[in-house]
Structure formats: C-alpha cells, structure tokens
Amino acid sequence: MTDDARSAVTRLREEMIEAANKLLPGLDPVRAFAAGGLHASAMKALAGVEAALGHHERVGLYGNASTEGEPGNCPHDPDSDLHFEDPDGSGEWLCEGRPEGAVCSSCVDGEGGERVDWPCPEYEGILKALTGKAAGHG
Ligand SMILES: [Zn+2]
Ligand SMILES: [Zn+2]
Questions:
Q1: Residues whose beta carbons lie less than 5 angstroms from ion ligand 2
Q2: What is the mean pLDDT of each run of 10 residues along the chain (138 residues)?
Q3: Paired strand residues for 93
C-alpha cells in the first residue's frame, strides 16, 4: 500500500523547490537571502517530519505458512515463493497469501504491551497535520 504521509512529504518538498525556483531569481539580493532562509527552514522541518515517520511504519502481519511438518496451514506448497521466515526471529514461517492486518513498527499498547494496529495514532496525527485527512485503514 502507499504511505500517504510519506507521499505528502515528498509532494510538499517538490512544491517548495518549485516555488523557490520561480521566486528566487526575480528577487533583489536582500529578499532572496530571506526567502532562501525560509526555504532552508521549511526543508529542515520536512526532514524532521520524515525522521518521525521513520519510527511509524506499517508492518504487515501474516498467518502461518504450510511447512513440511504442518502442511495444512495454507493452501500452498511449503516451498512456495509466498512464504518467508518471520522477520521478528520467532522461527515461524509465514504466508504472504494470508494477510492478517498490520501494526506499527514502534508503537505498543502500554509498557511491554502488544503492538498497536496500523495506522497508529502518531501516524494518523502526522498525516492529518500534513494533509488534513485521516488515514485509510488497511
Ligand atoms: Zn506508531
Ligand atoms: Zn502459503
């Protein structure tokens, strides 16, 4: 799925570069200097937003894959290309054909709690601030 907040950041950055390219050549040196400073500040703010988004990424959850020992977990062969080892290091094999929602890469529900469903409240907050829209679920 597309990451709406990240694409909003990319779009804002492009808009700012385009605006600066149009604006700066026509300005006298003093104004151009001030506008350049504003532009640099806005770019830093966007980089900060992007850094925050790096802590809130969608992590898809998948059901167990069929294995030699447990061939009934999913409809595929145990060596199907859809199967991959759990990146969390549980040793389980998971099946891309059995998506089971998604969680945030960082957010947990209280100290030591379960990971929260995606999109998490932090991501929703960032997205809403960037676009005025709430995230689509999924
Ligand atoms: Zn989060
Ligand atoms: Zn499978």
A1: 65, 74, 76, 82, 95, 97
A2: 86 95 92 95 96 95 95 95 91 95 94 92 95 73
A3: 85
